[in-house]
Amino acid sequence: MTVSNFFNTKIEFLKGVGPMRAELLQKELSIFTYGDLIQHYPFRYLDRTQFYKVSELDESMPYVQVRGRIRGKEVIGEGRKQRLAATLVDENGDQLELVWFKGVKWMEKTLKNHTDYIVFGKPTEFNGRFSMAHPELEELAEEKQTTSFLQPVYNTTEKLKAHRIDSKVLAKMMEHLLKVALPQVQESLSPELIDTYKLMDKRSAYTNIHFPETVEKYNAAKFRLKFEELFYIQLRLFRQKVVRKADLKGQVFNQVPTLNEFYKNHMTFDLTNAQKRVVKEIYADLTAGKQMNRLLQGDVGSGKTIVAFITMLIAADNGAQSVLMAPTEILADQHYVGLKAFADRLGINLGKLTGSTKASERKVLHEQLRSGDMKMIVGTHALLEDVVQFQNLGLCIVDEQHRFGVEQRSKLWRKNPRIIPHVLVMTATPIPRTLAMTLYGDLDVSVIDELPAGRKEIVTVHRFDSHRLRVFQFVRDQIKLGRQVYIVYPLIEESEQMENYKDLMDGYESIKRAFPEYQVSMVHGKLKPQDKDYEMQRFVKNETQIMVATTVIEVGVNVPNASVMIIESAERFGLSQLHQLRGRVGRGAEQSYCILMTGYKLSKDSKTRLETMVRTNNGFEIADIDLKLRGPGDLMGTQQSGVLDLLIADLSKDAPILQEARAAAQRVLHQDPQLEKPENANIRRHIQSLSANTINWSRIS
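Structure for ATP-dependent DNA helicase RecG, as requested:
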């Protein structure tokens, strides 16, 4: 049996598993094969080397173990309120109460009176007496006075526990697996990498990640496996980039007459240094003869749209058409209105295609795109329809690109069968560097990291519900100065689970009562598009002074006159969402404000989010903290991207390992692009053992 086939062995054939348990493991933990199980790593370890006496216990201790003798047990209460209570007495005669609320009958049968046990659990104190609820129990045999060193704890589920498959049972399965699997484990990194980074060999790493002999060996195993995982992810991304740059030709855009005219005669403001740097990076790509594939990151209001327009002008100057695709009609309209003024002055035909474009207008647009009369078009998903054809599509710009799936984006690229268009993807959701390297390592990244001149930083404050009257007075003062106000709620209607959070309908009524002298708009996701648009337009035209909304305004309309953003139940929102919402104000020259409203009951994470918002406007710093709080899964809709395929590395904590792994992958490919050299045989063999669609190359077969 080859190594690859061995790790593809179905899990039911492992000693102690069998068909019924195998089915549960597949459904609950996606463990189908030996390879899946050996890479089901413990999420923490219990230190079982130290024993405590009852007199040494303290409520702040996490989990502790105590040795003692059971002296009496009884079932207390009736029916569902039944519980089993037992008394454990240690060698000093001090008592610890043990309590079980579940599995009472089974525990009563198995727990032996006048017998010595090791109990392991979380101590809690009540009226000067310590107790443990649902402790782990181990009968203390005479010869067994100590237990293993670090005991692995594996993720499991309620359903598995109900079928008696808990962490201990998984550990037993892992013991059986390692016995047969270790001889089959082959080294997957080159001797040079192992030597340079002082890495533990792979067999020892598997042993010590599951059953560590010492803390030092555990740390070495963890570093080895994290390094390997991140190394292979970077290697895959770099190889994609190398292949694309070698294979994919791009149109050469080196003529810029209209762009020069735009700079000299029509641009009413200066670009920031960051914008100039980014335009230079893009121009270098467009003249290189290779396809551009660039990610443009910039905070809300940093001026990405004008950079996009400059790029579209360069394409037009070279006889190519360009597309700017946005995720919502509101955002597409905003881009269109902003750019049309410039396009008209330059005599450029700029179109707009969204879901609500009339059939008669569509016919004209389709004809102009096919003939090449229309050089630029802004739109939504409507641009992806097969009927939309171009004479020569040379540039695709995708805004808020994480809202489009990979398949949707590639549909756009395929609209030029002769030569693949240049691609610029833009996002106002700042992506932490570690995540950008992992998600977009195959793209070149440009960052606009300064705001245009004259923009003031938004002042952010946190206020409790008890300050509401003062906040409302502040709103009145701002409206008297001619400004407008957003008030954002997390929910549309009250729900039983969240009745303590302000809901939109209730909020709308109370705002109308509090401000009878002003007009109030309301927008939420359940409104029909035309109704939403009507309400938005009223606010844009200053016919309404207050906009009550849910997060539908998070990405979208640009109202320079709106200078106050109030976020109700701010603890309900994630950091990046709070930052996006705050970016709706601060778009004019006036000082803008963001007020975060909450009750007094706040979790530790909520406090961190609110303090971060008050302290900084820097989107990248906010994204880094968000990554630490939430992990990569929630950011950027990464569920589809494969980044969640990580088995042991953690992007929020492992940035230094990622940097080293990235440098190593780059060096290996630079010296041996095809991985043909003998010293890279392990790496080559490992990649060949994987199926073509494996995202995480560090996986076993």
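The chain has four domains: 1-43+148-174, 50-146, 257-448, 459-616.
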